[in-house]
Please model this.
Amino acid sequence: LAIKSVTVWITMNGTIVNRSSQTTDARYVNLSITFFNLIDGNYTLQANATDGINLNTSETRNVVVDTVASNLTLASPTPENGTYAGRSIMINVTANDTTSGIQEINISIHNSVHTIINSQITRNAKQAFFNVTDLDSGRYYINATVLDYAGNKQITETRNVTLDSITPNISFVSPTLSNATNQSLTFIFANVTAFDNRLINSITILITMNGTIVNRSSSTTSPFFVNFTNLIDGNYTLFANVTDGVNLNNTENRTIIVDTVPPNATFATFTPVNGTYKGNSIFINITANDTTSGI
Model:
């Protein structure tokens, strides 16, 4: 018998979207059909042939039409564009594709001349995390690319991140008092200088008493001078720190005692009382006490 007709149809979610038939009277038929103007989605292809008596239907073939690239986002804690960091860069990427699905996410790090120095490919996942450590100081560029199973590609914006592993310098200078100084004044001078190859973000000088911050003052310029006034008697600690926005450095601690009260001094036992008559010797016994700076 000869083939009388061949029919090919395409469905979406169980509904026939299009069909095409060809009538013939041949033992062999080659039917080529193109279905145009299909929207994105999941389709099913089937065909059948009849010789006028018997009908045979082909297997079902599933085809996904996906013309839209995946959504791709640089997520937290990925550094923002223009950020300064230490010696590592953490990159977090999220992607979504509801049609054909995510095939791979490729995260790349470029050096200052835009040459790729490291990359990571994550397959069949909607999220990729890449932590690159022990990088030298300098500017780097980061971005990510996602590829779906239909071959659509999407790329993120490129962000630049500057790594700075050099700690700024800071030190006390005159007229800051030396460590372990005793004084009878109610104010303490503090003066520091700081330096950084890039920039000074903040200098902070603090004064504490028994571990509690009494006062602090901050500046963005060096040198930085502060006069802490109206101090009560006691033991104070001076220290300062500087940051360039990435690295923090501290000075040494300097202990300064403010003591405006004279010591207590008392004639003790065996010391003659006032107006006493003695022979050719006088025994004098004195006790003294100072709870602040000491005797």
Summary: Residues 81 and 159 are 5 Å apart (CA to CA). The chain has a mean pLDDT of 93.
